[in-house]
Automatic annotation (TrEMBL):
<comment type="similarity">
    <text>Belongs to the TFIIA subunit 2 family.</text>
</comment>
<dbReference type="InterPro" id="IPR009083">
    <property type="entry name" value="TFIIA_a-hlx"/>
</dbReference>
<keyword id="KW-0804">Transcription</keyword>
<dbReference type="InterPro" id="IPR015871">
    <property type="entry name" value="TFIIA_gsu_C"/>
</dbReference>
<dbReference type="InterPro" id="IPR003194">
    <property type="entry name" value="TFIIA_gsu"/>
</dbReference>
<feature type="domain" description="Transcription initiation factor IIA gamma subunit N-terminal">
    <location>
        <begin position="3"/>
        <end position="49"/>
    </location>
</feature>
<feature type="domain" description="Transcription initiation factor IIA gamma subunit C-terminal">
    <location>
        <begin position="60"/>
        <end position="101"/>
    </location>
</feature>
<dbReference type="InterPro" id="IPR015872">
    <property type="entry name" value="TFIIA_gsu_N"/>
</dbReference>
<dbReference type="Pfam" id="PF02751">
    <property type="entry name" value="TFIIA_gamma_C"/>
</dbReference>
<keyword id="KW-0539">Nucleus</keyword>
<dbReference type="InterPro" id="IPR009088">
    <property type="entry name" value="TFIIA_b-brl"/>
</dbReference>
<keyword id="KW-0805">Transcription regulation</keyword>
<protein>
    <recommendedName>
        <fullName>Transcription initiation factor IIA subunit 2</fullName>
    </recommendedName>
</protein>
<comment type="function">
    <text>TFIIA is a component of the transcription machinery of RNA polymerase II and plays an important role in transcriptional activation.</text>
</comment>
<dbReference type="Pfam" id="PF02268">
    <property type="entry name" value="TFIIA_gamma_N"/>
</dbReference>
Length: 106
């Protein structure tokens, strides 16, 4: 099963990528193993978000920009408010990337 590489841009994804690059540079692991680790990370993040996360969030804000390319939606919101069951968070700018999970399930 394929998966998107979106989560590599998260803080945990960039930390993993940096650590793997350092290990490849030092000769601790092979480049092929580093790629396999990143692919497993992509699959594990997708699985964890589908099965482990149960909370829902509502958000609203001013839509600054939106794009649809290669079945990926990108939204940039300004002055957004995110609300969960017991918390509200205001942010100046947020980028939301949404992909169709049905496409990679084929």
């Amino acid at each position: 099963m394929a998966s998107y590489e979106l989560y590599r841009k998260s803080s945990i994804g960039t930390s993993l990528t940096d650590a793997l690059e350092e290990m490849v540079t030092n000769g601790t692991i092979s480049p092929l193993l580093a790629v396999k680790v990143l692919m497993q990370f992509d699959k594990s993040m997708q699985d964890a978000l589908q099965t482990k996360v149960k909370s829902k969030t509502n958000f609203k804000g001013h839509l600054h920009t939106y794009r649809f390319c290669d079945n990926v939606w990108t939204f940039i919101l300004e002055n957004a408010t995110f609300k969960t069951d017991n918390e509200t968070q205001n942010v100046d700018h947020v980028k939301i990337v949404a992909c169709d999970a049905k496409i990679i399930a084929r």
